[in-house]
Amino acid sequence: MSDVDAAWAALHAAAERARVRRIASLFDREPDRLAKLTVDAAGLTLDLSKQPWSLGDLAEALDLARASGLEAARERLFAGETMNASENRAVLHMALRAPEGAGFKAQGQPVSAEVDEVLGRMRTFAEAVRSGARRGATGQPFRAILHIGIGGSDFGPRLVWEALRPLDPQIELRFAANVDPAEIQQALVGLDPAETLVVVVSKTFTTQETMTNAETARTWLRDALGPQGDSHLVAVSTALDLTRAFGVADDQVFGFWDWVGGRYSVWSAVGLSCLIALGPQAFDAFRAGGAAMDAHFRETPLESNAPVLLALAHVFNRNGLGRAVRSVVPYAQRLRLLPNFLQQLEMESNGKRVTFDGKPVKHATAVAVFGDAGSNVQHAFFQMLHQGTDVIPLDIVAVAQGSEGDPAAQKKLLANAIAQAEALMVGRTEEDVRAELFAKGVPAAEIETLAPQRTFPGDRPSSFILMDRLSPGTLGALVALYEHKTFVEGVLWGINSFDQWGVELGKTLASRVLGELTGGQSGAHDPSTAALIARLRG
Ligand code: F6P
Q1: Which are the catalytic amino acids?
Q2: Fewer C-beta within 10 Å: the chain N or C terminus?
Q3: Alpha-carbon 481 to chain mean position
Q4: Atom of ligand 1 nearest to the CA of 154
Q5: Host H or E run for residue 397
Q6: Is any ligand 1 atom within 6 A of the Cβ of residue 153?
Q7: Residues 328, 364: Cα–Cα separation, whole Å
Q8: Torsion angles phi and psi, residue 531, rounded to 5
Q9: Does the CB atom of residue 214 touch ligand 1 within 6 A?
Q10: Could you tell me the pTM of the whole model?
């Protein structure tokens, strides 16, 4: 048996032992549990002590990480080696948030100077728009941006804007991603074309949804401003020939590189709309938060490394205990889009069934991620988290110092976050419930049926991520924490976390079906698909 296989076997054996004990019991047995399973990194505190592993199990998980070559893989990542082999690309989003002059190389080629150059142009452009030095076709200053993009060209900027937007922004930022025209129609409501910049973000500049929305927006601009409307178009793309053909002036095109994966791209020019609307300082602080997490991830030993520990806790649940779903609940309304962002980050990165070299994986990979803002979701799916038949591990993200609104309401929010994690782990025994019902004078027959329904099994794991405050810096650290956690999992599973071949087939078939829906010749389909096309063709 290889070292890696032996380490996996040890992890599975550890998980079997974990099945027959309760998480809460580990605090008595392991006096240093809380200290060992709490780490601080870049303004975040991560408490993994409510996870089902013992400290001995953690040691097995760390052995697995070492045996899987995590430390060497981490070095290869930062060295700009070809981590995305199926597309022959380096993976270097860390270069986008590094301090000026950092000296990163992608596949041996220096990249940091180009990164600094584009960032410098983004800052200059943003400052000109914000100060009113750069104005629209009719001489009016820009008061709104319509950001058009989808997937990695949308989720990150949307998350950042929602998390950090001022209550009354100088420049309003709207988003349109879906090819469903309802979204862009809604986004345009109340916007004045004379005061609106349209930022089209697409790595490839061919994505159907984005180009459809971009055409709608260009028509909207031209209808109001004539051909001068095109001067309100800005593009963010790696395909400079296509942006030019679309009518975007070259000095309003901001490039990025093939070593920036879509779901890792918010740090690049993909974040331009946020940079303009939030200001360069906030965007720099966001990048610096990501860079601080990079330094922590790169330099900290595995046993106190936040992304590594979070990944191992998730792997222990996923592979050791067979838990195929995880919930993420930010107790911060401003972070309500975090689960959406993580759905792409984790499931597009690690939803893979073959390894780097095309062999079937030996271990189950990505879990399904879902969630929304707490406390709202306590009134939705938390019933299932507490009493459902499946154990669904939970990541709770909370903010220690709220910066806006009623401080008493902030405390209530925090109390809910803490209490839910406690309730999930501790539960409530049937005995306890029976005693309470009995004390209230409930008849014995009723106690028989009621008590089991009011019992909480407990022993349901959670991770608690506490942000000092919700600032650009801690947000950057949080996003980078999950990026690196996703990478670590990919290394353990032996997969390429940076390609996404699984989205291609649907795209190809959609264009074929579109041809048929719009009068083209019918193709060969299964009876169900053929019937739908026949019904909807027009
Ligand atoms: O969903 C597939 C995908 O390729 C994502 O990886 C990417 O973020 C998204 O489409 C958008 O792609 P583009 O930026 O090229 O428009």
Answers
A1: 348, 379, 507
A2: C
A3: 10
A4: 8
A5: strand 394-401
A6: yes
A7: 20
A8: -65, -40
A9: no
A10: 0.97
Q: How far apart are CA 357 and CA 77, in angstroms?
A: 18
| Rg of the chain (C-alpha set) | 25
Q: Which of 454, 458, 456 is nearest to 438 (CA)?
A: 454
From the CA of 476, how far away is ligand 1's center (Å)? 21
Report H helices in 392-500: 407-426, 430-439, 444-453, 472-493
Q: Specify whether the CB–CB gap between 298 and 95 falls below 8 A.
A: no
Q: Which two tokens stand for residue 168?
A: 């009354």
3-state secondary structure at position 301: coil
Say how far apart CA 177 and CA 283 lie, in whole Å: 22
C-beta separation of 195 from 136 below 8 A: yes
| First-residue to last-residue Cα distance in the chain | 61
Q: For 317-376, how does the pLDDT look when each residue is reduced to its tens digit (9 = 90+)? A: 999 999 999 999 999 999 999 999 999 999 999 999 999 999 999 999 999 999 999 999
Cα separation, 93 vs 73, whole angstroms: 15
Cβ(236)–Cβ(201) below 8 Å? yes
Of the candidates 441, 415, 439, 437, the residue with the CA atom closest to the CA atom of residue 428: 437
Strand partners, 329: 396
Q: Residue 8's beta-bridge partner residues? A: none
Cβ atoms of 91 and 78 within 8 Å: the answer is no
